[in-house]
From TrEMBL:
<dbReference type="InterPro" id="IPR038740">
    <property type="entry name" value="BioF2-like_GNAT_dom"/>
</dbReference>
<dbReference type="InterPro" id="IPR050644">
    <property type="entry name" value="PG_Glycine_Bridge_Synth"/>
</dbReference>
<protein>
    <submittedName>
        <fullName>FemAB</fullName>
    </submittedName>
</protein>
<feature type="domain" description="BioF2-like acetyltransferase">
    <location>
        <begin position="156"/>
        <end position="289"/>
    </location>
</feature>
<dbReference type="InterPro" id="IPR017469">
    <property type="entry name" value="PEP-CTERM_FemAB-rel"/>
</dbReference>
<dbReference type="Pfam" id="PF13480">
    <property type="entry name" value="Acetyltransf_6"/>
</dbReference>
<dbReference type="InterPro" id="IPR016181">
    <property type="entry name" value="Acyl_CoA_acyltransferase"/>
</dbReference>
Length: 347
């Protein structure tokens, strides 16, 4: 295809260099992310590169082969990510990588490929999926005072009350921060009725990203009540895995947490805040709008083998309504023991 060739990418330095040099690369294209997912979950990674006639890389597609007895299997670009997908210098390179991905799926007997960002392939088996998610991102203000004024009036009042309270904030990557973050996150998702990811996933990402990932925790009298694990990528902070205890809402701990993260990220040299994605019509979607973030629609791509249906991993699906209600009632120790076995298959 236009003199291009596609082959598995085994040169770690070449992978790093291509991601570092591409303006559209995300942390989910990085070798650090892909290797962390494989290390923590056991899902095999497949990375393809497109090469020009001179042997230079002109495209990249990292995939994870997600397998689950409950949710089925898929090739996902990339596992546990909200972005990623095809990364290419041209439409021709993107098309060549998409063709390689579908050929791999056929050879492995995998019924589906999920691309969560990047160029959207066209052709047999490929379809676009939109109207489900929106992303929220905006520039950070010049200083803490301007940041507060950038928040709409009603939400700003909540943030002010949180700032006037006795809540304290800690940041770091040490064992204590990791322990507190996981306890809070596990409690939060149990209360939402969904299984928690393995703790090894958080550790692997923190270890893989080094100083480009950390944890910020809000404490009430020393007791952790809200916590978020964030990624830092090219001047953008991405609060990625966050949650709060049952007391967090009453204490306005989430308001304290996200405003503190904006200030913390600016001190680290960030100029942009990526609030992540949310499903349309949900509470998190409305919450991010309340902070003054405008939603932008996200369009993903999926390939399906003939006669196959997309795997359903949406906890809001009617299919899982009973399971979600039951999960909320599980003791936390049981949810934390069983949850990672289930959640690792969500990908």
């Amino acid at each position: 295809m236009d003199g291009l060739s596609v082959a598995p990418l085994v040169d770690a330095a070449a992978w790093d260099a291509y991601v570092a040099g591409h303006p559209d690369a995300t942390p989910f294209h990085s070798r650090a992310w892909c290797e962390a997912i494989t290390k923590a979950t056991g899902h095999k990674g497949h990375a393809f590169a497109a090469y020009d006639t001179a042997g230079a890389i002109v495209g990249l597609l990292p995939l994870h082969h997600i397998r689950s007895p409950l949710f089925g299997q898929a090739l996902v670009a990339t596992g546990f990510a909200v972005d990623g997908g095809l990364l290419a210098d041209s439409d021709a390179a993107a098309a060549a990588l998409a063709a390689a991905a579908s050929a791999l799926a056929k050879s492995l007997g995998v019924p589906s490929i999920e691309l969560r960002g990047g160029p959207l392939p066209e052709g047999e088996g490929w379809r676009r999926e939109d109207g489900v998610y929106a992303g929220f991102a905006r520039d950070l203000a010049a200083d803490d005072g301007a940041e507060l004024l950038a928040i709409p009036r009603k939400q700003r009042a909540e943030v002010r009350k949180a700032l006037e309270s006795d809540l304290t904030v800690t940041t770091g990557r040490d064992a204590a921060e990791r322990r507190d973050h996981y306890r809070i996150y596990a409690t939060s998702v149990r209360n939402l009725g969904t299984p928690v990811f393995p703790r090894a996933l958080f550790d692997a990402v923190l270890d893989g990203f080094g100083d480009d990932a950390d944890i910020l925790t809000v404490r009430d009298g020393g007791r952790p009540v809200a916590s978020v694990l964030s990624l830092y990528w090219r001047g953008t902070v991405m609060p990625y895995w966050g949650g709060g205890t049952a007391d967090a809402r009453r204490l306005r701990a989430n308001e304290r947490m996200y405003f503190a993260l904006m200030c913390h990220a600016r001190a680290k040299g960030c100029t942009r805040f990526d609030f992540g994605r949310s499903k349309l019509g949900t509470g998190p979607f409305a919450y991010k709008k309340n902070w003054g973030f405008d939603p932008h629609p996200l369009t993903y791509a999926r390939w399906l083998a003939p006669g196959e249906m997309p795997r359903d991993t949406n906890p809001n699906s009617a299919r899982y309504r009973l399971q979600v209600d039951l999960w909320k009632k599980l003791p936390l120790w049981a949810a934390n023991r069983i949850g990672p076995l289930i959640a690792r298959g969500l990908g």
